[in-house]
Amino acid sequence: MGIGFVGSFGGLERARSGRKVERKRKVSVTMVLSDFLGAAGEYPIVPSPVAPVFPRGDPLVVDTSVKVEEVDGIRGLVVTKDVEKGDLLASLKRSEVISVERKFSRGSPLEEEAERVLFLRRSFWGEELRVVGDWRLRLALKLLIETRTNTELLPYFALLPKETGVPVFWNRTEVTELQHFELQKRILRQKVQWETICELIMQNSSALDVREVLWAMDIVRSRAFSGEFQQRSSLVATFAACWTAGLALPLLSNVNTDLSLAGTVLFIAGILVTEASGKRARRRGFLAPIADMMNHFSGATTGLTYDAFSDSFQVRAGEKIKKGSEVLFDYNEKGYSRPNDELLQYYGFVNEENKTRTYLICDTLNQFFDEKRFGVPRRRIRELKVTKKRLKRRSVDGGGVVLSIDVDGKASFNDRFINLVKKLEPSRTRRRQLVAHICRRELEQMPTTIEEDRIIRSNLRSQRPPNPRKLLAVNYRIENKRLLMEAAEYFLRNDNES
């Protein structure tokens, strides 16, 4: 505990210079990464989360169209009858959703609630903005408050998993089995972040247990939604009345032109009020009971929307679903598809049919830019050193060199990297050989081959009970090795690429 590195759950960022938080000991990020690479030191261990004990009451029922059920050993949402596209599957009142505003501001009601229920001192909210400003941390605290005060949601709390199995809770040996240095570094940074957050909370509250805090953070990181909505207000009733009157009055205007004019004015007023209402909506992060039981499927069309008229959240079928089938939800955001790195780190699973196949490469760049191996001319040595320095800095900042393969099997690196390579090697054929060598070199540095991993996976699946962490790690590295092999073959096969 006491690592001097803080940031949001989603983005890894250093704390800004300024007032430092008092800690028992301070360890630099460089030292921590050195520990990870094998130097002497203690590897950060985040203890396994412990969920609060909730009484088993009546099952949580929000609609007769769906129910929570085990599907292939995984808890999911199943329809109880045949449904058509657009049918309402579940509806949640605004009061049944746990939410916080994404934008942090001092003096919010959450501060008073946390002090009263969790005995979290107000001084906590004056800590590093990168910690308290993260909406997922505030939503985790809100979840802990609700578990202590909201008896109506006890059936929902009882359904929440005790642990999602994400790598932040794995030990050093288990993380190393992923055989991907860049992901291992990201997991390490997340461990340091969560340690820092828990330490700050423990310093400001005597009523919270660190394992319970970790459980809430784990639940929020893997299940929370985000979107724009606002609580129901008089605006909803106002523009509803304006629209209704604006449409109805012209029908009565055959003999009275004043009614027609009044209807037109009210109709326009309804549009203006609607626009004003939408502008007042703020982006919020929230937990939606039942809706967050939907499992991931890339390309699923079932969605969760907020209806301002009824002040409720609704799950509607995006396609026909047969009785007894599972309701699936696409975890990807608009314009962004989550790769397996992110699915594993934050959600605890690997999608073997992921349409977004990417691999972050940085550790083999020294071999790539080796003058003797690739014969870089002496006049380009200075440019070579600058390029290596830029790529190394981007790797530390979470960028780096990204190899990807699309659904058509076309492999490519990110444009910034390719542009740098073109400056060093004008020959297209030579560039193809170099990028193919990067893929092969990455495979050579891994302790096991893909054939060996498949045998290991087969043995793990036959064990009773199977080791879920080892099985996840093996599945993850098999997908990575398959991607690297396909990419190397593609670059050597296609003469017009890179």
Automatic annotation (TrEMBL):
Q: Does the keyword Transferase apply?
A: yes
Q: Which InterPro entries match?
A: Rubisco_LSMT_subst-bd, Rubisco_LSMT_subst-bd_sf, SET_dom, SET_dom_sf, SETD3_SETD6_MTase
Q: Which GO terms describe its biological process?
A: methylation
This entry's Gene Ontology molecular function terms read: protein-lysine N-methyltransferase activity
Name the keywords, alphabetized.
Methyltransferase, S-adenosyl-L-methionine, Transferase
* Family matches, as Gene3D superfamilies: Rubisco LSMT, substrate-binding domain, set domain protein methyltransferase, domain 1
Provide an example Pfam family for this protein: Rubis-subs-bind
- Return the PROSITE patterns for the record: SET
Protein known as: SET domain-containing protein
Q: Which organism is it from?
A: Rhodosorus marinus
